[in-house]
Amino acid sequence: MLQNVPALPGIFRFLDLAGIAVFALSGALLAVRLRRDFVTLAFFALVTGVGGGSVRDLLIDAPVFWVRDPLVAPLCLAVALLAWFSPERWWEGRLLVWADAVGLAAYAVLGTVKALDYGLTPVTGALMGVITGCAGGIIRDVLAGQPSILMRPEIYITAATLAAALAAGGTVLGLPREVVWPGAALAGFVLRGAAIRWSLAIPEYGRKRNGPGS
């Protein structure tokens, strides 16, 4: 994902590819549920897997990461094949939701770090991290005509924002990346995990207003 920055620690390179695979799988499974053909399924896998990072790279005027990474496109295709040939029952339950939480947190951190490396301010860099973590799923939902995560009350983007903000803050303060990156990703994952476990959501506008005219 990252270009022109120090090599990713092994665990984050793994999480980078794992995040791509998880997001690609969510796109492929949506196409499966919509009963689309394999070409559409593979397209959804690719768009969802690389969408967030591609939007970020275009916004910060960086080479689009997956075009230069020889592993990403084959990984998305492999995920599409897995979804195509595997029974739907493999993916029932919340396994994919929890895996998505890991990818969301890792992507938000890695996207922030890359944006900061390209000279963006901490606030803008953090926003690029949020885009990296969330945009792929938004693109997937829009293309499928599904309600976007933006329109749901559940805590999702907020978790990406927490991870991105901590990554930006720690990087600006010059703290060791070995501490900042995992800590920021863990914080985002914990918040998203709490939302999954206890159905936490941000109050909607006007929900607590009472009385006539409310």
Largest sheet: none
Mean pLDDT: 88
- Report how far the terminal alpha carbons are from each other: 47 Å
| Portion in strands | under 5%
Q: Percent helix among the residues? A: 55-70%
The whole-angstrom Rg is 17 Å
* N-to-C series of helices and strands: HHHHHHHH
The class by helix and strand makeup works out as: mainly alpha
**Low-confidence segments:** 1-6
Number of helices: 8
Number of strands: 0
Overall 3D shape: globular
Description:
This protein is mainly α. The protein is built from eight helices and no strands. Helix 2 (38-59) packs antiparallel against helix 4, helix 2 (38-59) runs antiparallel to helix 6 and helix 7 runs antiparallel to helix 8 (177-198). It starts with 9 loop residues before the first helix and ends in a 16-residue tail after the last helix.
Secondary structure elements and pairings:
Layout: H1 10-33, H2 38-59, H3 65-68, H4 72-85, H5 95-117, H6 122-144, H7 157-172, H8 177-198
Helix pairs in contact: 1-2, 1-4, 1-5, 1-6, 2-4, 2-6, 5-6, 5-7, 5-8, 6-7, 7-8
List keywords for this structure.
single chain; 214 residues; mainly alpha; 8 helices; 69% helix; globular
Quick recap:
The chain is an all-alpha fold and about 210 residues long. It has 8 helices and no strands.
